[in-house]
Predict the 3D structure of the following.
Amino acid sequence: MSQESLHGKWTVSSSDEEDPAPLSLQPVKKEEHPDKDRAISHGKQTTLFNVKQEPEHTRKTDKNKSYMESGHNKPSVSGKTSNKFLGSGSEERKNAPSNEQKRLPFMTSSRDSGTTTPAVKRKKESENSGWCLSSSDEETDSEHTGERATRRRSPSPKKRKSEAEKRSPSPGDSQQLDESLNSWDLLEGGEPFRFYLNKVTGISNRYNAGALNIKDILSPLFGTLKASVQFNYCFDVKWLVKQYPPEFRSKPLLIVHGEKRESKVRLHEEAHPYENVRLCQAKLDIAFGTHHTKMMLLLYEEGFRVVIHTSNLIHDDWYQKTQGIWLSPLYPKLPEGSSDTAGESCTNFKHDLIEYLVSYRSPTLNEWINHIKEYDLSETRVYLIGSSPGRYQGAQKEKWGHLKLRKLLSEHASSDSGEETWPVIGQYSSIGSLGADKTKWLTSEFQQTLTTLQKGVTFLPKHEIPLHLIYPTVENVRTSLQGYPAGGSLPYSIQTAQKQLWLHSYFHKWSADVTGRTHAMPHIKTYARISPHFKELAWFVVTSANLSKAAWGSMEKNNTQLMIRSYELGVLFLPSAFNMKTFTVQKNQFSGSKNSAMSFPVPFDVPPERYSGKDKPWIWNIPYTYGPDTHGNIWVPS
């Protein structure tokens, strides 16, 4: 059935309730179809190929000019098919090169290969559900080895840093060494918030100066690893193992996942070659829930560290997307004989982390709960915001989801006069079904949480507080580093969008010139309350939770019960925990000045720019043929 809408002409199945089939890629060779200069849809596949001639409407705009000046190519119309145009759920991403100049031929789709991609997972998990989940497509399938590294005791991080600086690296590893040392210096520099972005391939080096990649996080410079746990939604075990330094690849690694049935079997098969890898399945007792938390627990000889982030454990998520990372201090061990409650922080982080792990009801995680009890987490300055599947009543419902955020804001947010009018920002990579109108969830219970002030402070009616929602436009995706394939990680479906057109009036473009990441599509999720002049923050959250009821929870039974479907995890930054009244928004994040060190590094441009009349939100399962992307391709899912 074809229909016309605000998003152009599109086709849906006979049931609007059904989520789209996973997008896959079937290459079309130009010589086999000489009369076709557009993408053609075949059944359940996405047919994608390069546009040979520049459309008349494609102009050299100032935006394209600035894009060229940033070191990126504008949309190509050369007729050379780029392997970088890779559809969601395709095998091509597994073969995507890290070097933009290297081109490989198209490969068959993952549907044929048997590999489960996030798109396939999302189809199976959310079919007939009313919401979407964030994910990314599959990762580079680089060569890996199952060989075990020789076990040996490593020197302390500081000693390793000294030795690394003294030795003469070979040309092949000098860049990696420099990056690792820079990351070490970054942590040693005492950045107060410990909030970082990931390194992005294809942007200016200056914008990666204060960023981390996964190899930095797992570097021996950060600690001598004894064991680790990886919580996540999507894994490539081979790729993950190779991110650990060789000397740590045989250390115990526990993977906490939410896979079921066939995908669980595949994950076990992936992990089988690694005798040090164990798997722990998270219980998902409520339909359509997922294990979406992204956290690392790292146990060192020197201490213990927690990392809460937004990236799947696949290559693609650490390549050309904008991601967020909170890296804890290196926690020291408590003296023997300390009580279980010793080493608590002013934010109650230790208690909340243990409570979150207890919610898994897993004997396997009890070992790590005992580890955490042995360490001093008192230096933590962030609050933990977790979601765990269940239905909660009474005091229990304030432990999870948006009601946990509401409780913390009511206890610790500023009570200064005037802040009750401050706008709220939400930024995310996926959107769930939020109801027939804004009052069903967004501007009722969720906005009530986001606008909560300290107890006793009167606030204005909710409709008077501006709500700025940041989600990429079609043009954002088209001109991104990855081009249209970046939209595979922004799974907002036409079926959901058509039911909530009211939501789009809140939308603002993705723009991140301040961090050099305007063209690195966001997989990060953030929420904040900001002053009307956009110079101060009342609070800031980075989390795995998208804009969905499944992630944040929704009220039931006349607001006496909170229902949450999924596991999520994030951290809340409140000025009071840093002895501040508000955070100053950092305008020049790469100046290196001491003043900027005490201002908060918001990862996108503020104020956000509202959608213009021509802007449309990216919807991943409709075609985009009006113009080529940065690699000269168009997007036509079926």
User: Anything to note?
Assistant: The two ends are 12 Å apart (CA to CA). The chain is about 20% helix and 15% strand. The first strand starts at residue 2 and ends at 5.
